[in-house]
């Protein structure tokens, strides 16, 4: 899978993953899926989009998702984000509501989160591909091991980072993060099924920025531009 584009700053720290047997098996699985005529999202050039947009040295915040969206035209390699012109998913609607309550930022008219990623917010799904119309269809194929390695690499950075962990899945996945150096913010998932159980009112955006400023790092501009292509 080394022919797939990945951000330069991640290549050396993750080199052992790309040459490991499990990654070879994962590549074979994806090739076979496509050979069988199954549509896989996102497209191959966007599997590692989160790493392309957010260099390792620039990571200030990590937000963990679980799987890519499995609907037509939604997934593009960033968790919780959808392409411009695509209907904003319910979890992201709730994220925008909390952002407004927390920082007074009105909800964006789109769900395209690249502006966050380009500022050092690593929008990482645990599993990086999915079959169209089949949620969680690529779980257990090796992606989880790869994204565990990504989290470990970030955890090892000297610069303090904020880990925003929404829901029990993300919290289990990043349970090993060093809380002596980094800030770990835990709350229920923003899904409509759980957002009212403690996600609303958790104020992750202001807490993240307060921590970053306290440790001499630039806060994130969480306001999303209206002019997206």
From TrEMBL:
SMART domains with a match to the protein in the record: UDG (SM00986), UreE_C (SM00987)
Gene Ontology molecular function terms on file: uracil DNA N-glycosylase activity
The keyword Metal-binding is assigned to this record: no
Localisation: Cytoplasm
Enzyme Commission designation: 3.2.2.27
Coiled-coil spans in chain: none
Enzyme class: hydrolase
Keywords in alphabetical order: Cytoplasm, DNA damage, DNA repair, Glycosidase, Hydrolase
Gene3D superfamilies found in the cross-reference section: Uracil-DNA glycosylase-like domain
CDD domains per UniProt: UDG-F1-like (cd10027)
Active-site positions on this chain: 67 (proton acceptor)
Catalytic activity field: Hydrolyzes single-stranded DNA or mismatched double-stranded DNA and polynucleotides, releasing free uracil
Uracil-DNA glycosylase-like domain span: 52-212
PANTHER family in the cross-refs: URACIL-DNA GLYCOSYLASE
Protein function: Excises uracil residues from the DNA which can arise as a result of misincorporation of dUMP residues by DNA polymerase or due to deamination of cytosine.
Family indicated by similarity: Belongs to the uracil-DNA glycosylase (UDG) superfamily. UNG family.
Name of protein: Uracil-DNA glycosylase
Native source organism of the sequence: Shinella pollutisoli
Organismal lineage: Bacteria, Pseudomonadati, Pseudomonadota, Alphaproteobacteria, Hyphomicrobiales
């Amino acid at each position: 899978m080394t022919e797939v584009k990945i951000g330069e700053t991640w290549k050396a720290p993750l080199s052992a993953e790309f040459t490991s047997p499990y990654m070879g098996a994962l590549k074979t699985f994806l090739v076979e899926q496509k050979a069988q005529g199954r549509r896989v999202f996102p497209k191959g050039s966007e599997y590692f989009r989160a790493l392309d947009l957010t260099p390792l040295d620039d990571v200030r915040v990590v937000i963990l998702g679980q799987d890519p969206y499995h609907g037509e035209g939604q997934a593009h390699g960033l968790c919780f984000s959808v392409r411009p012109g695509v209907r904003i998913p319910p979890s992201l609607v709730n994220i925008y509501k909390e952002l407004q309550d927390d920082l007074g930022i009105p909800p964006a008219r789109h769900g395209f989160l690249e502006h966050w990623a380009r500022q050092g917010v690593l929008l990482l799904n645990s599993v990086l591909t999915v079959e169209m119309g089949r949620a969680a269809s690529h779980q257990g194929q090796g992606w989880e091991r790869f994204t565990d390695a990504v989290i470990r690499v970030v955890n090892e950075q000297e610069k303090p980072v904020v880990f925003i962990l929404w829901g029990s899945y993300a919290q289990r996945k990043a349970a090993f993060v060093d809380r002596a150096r980094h800030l770990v913010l835990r709350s229920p998932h923003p899904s409509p099924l759980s957002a009212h159980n403690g996600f609303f009112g958790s104020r992750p955006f202001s807490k993240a920025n307060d921590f970053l400023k306290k440790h001499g790092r630039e806060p994130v501009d969480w306001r999303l531009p209206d002019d997206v292509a």
